[in-house]
Amino acid sequence: MKAFCVGIALMLVCQSTAMSLLRDRPNQKVAHSFLQKIEYRDPYNKVGADLCPTCVSFTGQAINTLLNLILQGGVVGTCGALCSALAQKTGSQALGEVCDLICDIAGIEEFIKLIEKADLDPIYFCEEMNLCPVKDDGDAKITQLSVTPKSGPQGQFSIDYTYVSVNGTGTGEIVLEVETVDHIPVVNGTQELTKCTKGSFLNELADAGSYSQSVKLKAQPDPDCDPTQGPCEEWMPGNYTVKIAICNGECGSKHPHSQIYDEATTTFEITENNKTN
């Protein structure tokens, strides 16, 4: 019965973070999601444990809360006590279940040590837990980055990219940024952004080869955005810049097993909406 409950928890955590591994932060605003991965061609010979994406998804949601609970003390004597406190703090029984599973693998003392050592880097934490494989001789070269349509009114755009790897890639992430015309800070996924909308996707260990992916950009105002809580992105007519980075580990991380493989940039235009009398 416990195994069944943990299985349900794994599915809930993975589904809730399928679009982003961006770490949780205190005092978040309401999230407005503009980027969504809509196509993923799995590596032909993908390597690595199944728990890697689950660990990264869980850690991205929970590491900040766990660190605060550890620093506060009083509930860190056992995995059960710490993970129950996490479930209560976040209101998510699923997070508590996955916390129990991962904490039991390392033991409470090692689990706490790695949470503190990771410094809010989910991928590095999961590598140190031996749940995500490490590959430091990987590489990736972006060979194509485009936006379709290249020019058009507000609506759905498709960001398509292809990269080639000679040696294969390590556990890392692909980060997409869209610099907006009005430079209004946007909230996407679980991270507040400045002057752009941003999406980050886990890129699992893979063999050498060519990989193509597509991300849907919903370039139109979010009807759920509350202007009393902050500026709302209007997707005004003009030229927009799209940036992509493919990384080993978390992009920009100073931890071991982290590097930027390659970066690329392109542009697209949002035109005036057609008006009818």
Automatic annotation (TrEMBL):
Question: Which keywords appear in this protein's UniProt record, sorted alphabetically?
Answer: Disulfide bond, Signal
UniProt keyword annotation of Aminoacyl-tRNA synthetase present: no
- Protein name listed in UniProt: Saposin B-type domain-containing protein
What InterPro entries does this protein's entry cite?
SaposinB_dom
- Positions of the Saposin B-type domain: 48-136
Q: Which residues form the signal peptide?
A: 1-18
- Keyword Signal appears in the UniProt entry: yes
Against SMART domains, the record matches this protein to:
SapB
